[in-house]
Amino acid sequence: MRRSIKRVAISAASLLLCGVAMWAALRAPPLPAPAPEAACSVEQVRLHTGDGVLLDGILYRPAANPRSAAFLLVHGFGANYYEAYFPALARAAAAQGYASLALNMRDHDSGPKISDFRDNQTDIAAGLAHLRSLGYPKAVLLGQSMGTNRVLYYHAATRDSGIVAVVLVSGPGNLFEWNVRQFGRKEAQATLDEALALQAAGHEQQLMLINLGPLGKGLYTARYLLSLRGPDSRSDPYQNIRKVTSPVLILQGKADRLVEPGIAERLRRAATTGARVDLIYFDDADHYFTKQEARLGEHIFGWLKEVAP
């Protein structure tokens, strides 16, 4: 009898322990799901240009199935490598197998501007050299805003055969004409004449306070201003696109408050080399394609599959 009671007690205890274990299991938080494999690696880089300037940037590399072509992302006036849609576009590009280097130009952000527009050729060359050293022999140059003028100048000046495509987003067109539209020809010409007078007097490194309209005010040396919009400037995109032989994609938002939409069509018409030039308008996109990043990437990658598969 005692043995029977003991067996019942043991069985009851076992059931109780099982119940406690099940209760604890149900109460315990679920095990975390395995982390998804990263689509890309992200690395900060520091590069020296051929003339010794140190540039910062971010390199995005695909985790799998890398392509032989990589993007070089070139920002616009007063911007930098991590603003606007660059991070989102670079990660989306990695999912397509493209590496991307978003690189500061030497006149990045909002400090005093003392360089020459032509120095951007050296900056872009440093970025491309770094990508090639990593095993990416081909490149897609993408310029945002004034970055469009930079990449067109680079391609026109170098005829770099490794550039398989050029993407131009929100290009402002001729920079002197942009100032005329903002302030009228009289004020725009007066600023230019002041810079020319300083240059003639041997003071081209003297700083000038420049009215930039919707962009605020900035400090330019006379040298910098003349390199952007002077009579001998090399920044004119309508002249430079005539020398570009790679396929070109122009993207422009019709809600852009800094650039008139017609600039994009004028730029498309200026190409005369026989290279393919395509233009896509976004009805509701602003200058930086805010909240349009995914659509922007879809159009760029779809176009690249046609022109540089």
Count of β-strands: 10
Share of helix, binned: 40-55%
| Helix/strand/pairing category | alpha/beta
CATH top level label of the largest domain = Alpha Beta
The number of helical elements comes to 10
Strand order of the largest sheet: 1-2-4-3-5-6-9-10
Tally of discrete structural domains: 3
How large, in whole angstroms, is the Cα Rg? Answer: 28 Å
CATH topology of the largest domain: Rossmann fold
Look at the structure and name the CATH superfamily of the largest domain.
Answer: Alpha/Beta hydrolase fold, catalytic domain
SSE pattern, N- to C-terminal: HEEEHEHEHEHHEEHHEHEH
Average pLDDT: 90
Query: What's the N-to-C terminus distance?
Result: 86 Å
Give the low-pLDDT segments.
Answer: 1-36
CATH architecture of the largest domain: 3-Layer(aba) Sandwich
Q: Main sheet, how many strands, which sense, barrel? A: 8 strands, mixed
Shape: globular
Strand content: 15-25%
Explained architecture:
The protein is of the alpha/beta class and 309 residues long. The chain has helices at residues 2-27, 86-95, 119-133, 146-158, 175-183, 185-200, 222-229, 237-240, 262-270, 293-307; strands at residues 40-48, 54-62, 69-74, 99-103, 138-144, 163-169, 207-211, 217-221, 248-253, 277-282. It folds into 3 domains: 1-31; 40-174 and 235-307, Rossmann fold; 178-225, no CATH class. It has 10 helices and 10 strands. The strands form 2 sheets. Strands 1-2-4-3-5-6-9-10 form an 8-stranded mixed β-sheet, with helices on both faces. Strand 1 and strand 2 form a beta hairpin. Residues 1-36 have low confidence and may be disordered.
